[in-house]
Amino acid sequence: MTEVILFGGTTEGRLLAAALRAKALPALVCVATEYGESLLEEGGSLSIRRGRLETGEMADLFRQRKPRLVIDATHPFAAVVSENIRAACRAAGTQYLRVLRADSSEEEGDGEQLERFSDLEDLIAWLNEQPGIIFSTLGAKEAERLSRIRGSAERVWLRILPDPAGLAACQAAGFLARRIICMQGPFSRELNMAMFGAAGADILITKESGRTGGYPEKIAAAKACGLKIGVWSRPRESRGLAAEEIIRRIGEGTL
């Protein structure tokens, strides 16, 4: 029997996987990509399943494995995936727990440099009104939509994970290899500043990814460099627990 099924190729997912493995709790970690799998350590009580799942496939997996708990540590912007996991848990009668990222909005401060957008299309429309070089940390999944920015091939730098599939998606969307940075974060304020400077960036666009995603460091670096900042605000979630609290409960055996 599997005690816990954990979804997430995120930083929180990796930390939770390590905690489950250390506690020797029988657990299955589900990740979507080969790159996500490569960042995890399998063995002992921990096994890994790679590949995207539809809601029905998730529910079948839950019925087969009969986990006591499903933990959703997917990215805060993966709203569709989270809803699919919740629906599968309801269908299989399995307990669901969402991992919440700490809110870092208080660290942004005020100022004219920063604009917030609840929708990527609105952010793109704003970018089409702004001159200058754009540095995107939105990830490879948004490359196709970012190609709608006027002059995107010459104006936009992309920083993405070092995943061959992500790089291929960016190039297929028309972005130039010399303007694609493939690195695993999060990054320090100083390294962000160096990258913004090397790109000659005038604008930073970023998801509100929280402290775990290095969001405060990106914002601080952009402000120090005098960049305009376009923030794609994340959906607000109120039900769940922080990764640190879940890890504490795993260690105490009270999860």
Strand coverage percent:
15-25%
Poorly predicted runs? none
Termini separation: 17 Å
**Secondary-structure class:** alpha/beta
Give the mean pLDDT. 92
- Measured as a percent range, the helix fraction is 25-40%
Number of helices: 11
Order of strands across the widest beta sheet? 3-2-1-4-5-12
- N-to-C order of helices and strands: EHEHEHEHEEHEHHEHEHEHEEH
Please outline the major beta sheet.
6 strands, parallel
Radius of gyration: 19 Å
How many beta-strand segments?
12
C-alpha geometry: elongated
Descriptive key words:
single chain, 255 residues, alpha/beta, six-stranded parallel sheet, 11 helices, 38% helix, elongated
Nutshell version of this structure?
The protein is of the alpha/beta class. It has 11 helices and 12 strands. The strands form 2 sheets. Strands 3-2-1-4-5-12 form a 6-stranded parallel β-sheet. A 6-stranded parallel β-sheet has the order 6-11-10-7-8-9, with helices on both faces.
Descriptive report:
There is one protein chain. The protein is α/β, with parallel strands linked by helices. 38% of the residues lie in helices and 20% in strands. It has eleven helices and twelve strands. The protein has helices at residues 11-22, 34-38, 55-65, 79-92, 120-127, 143-146, 152-155, 164-172, 189-199, 215-224, 243-252, and strands at 4-7, 27-31, 46-50, 69-72, 96-100, 114-117, 134-136, 156-160, 180-182, 203-207, 228-232, 241-242. The strands form two sheets. The protein has a six-stranded parallel sheet with strand order 3-2-1-4-5-12. A six-stranded parallel sheet has the order 6-11-10-7-8-9, with helices on both faces. Strand 4 (69-72), helix 4 (79-92) and strand 5 form a beta-alpha-beta unit. Helix 9 (189-199) packs across helix 10 (215-224). The longest helix is centred in the middle third of the chain and has 14 residues, at 79-92. The two termini are 17 Å apart.
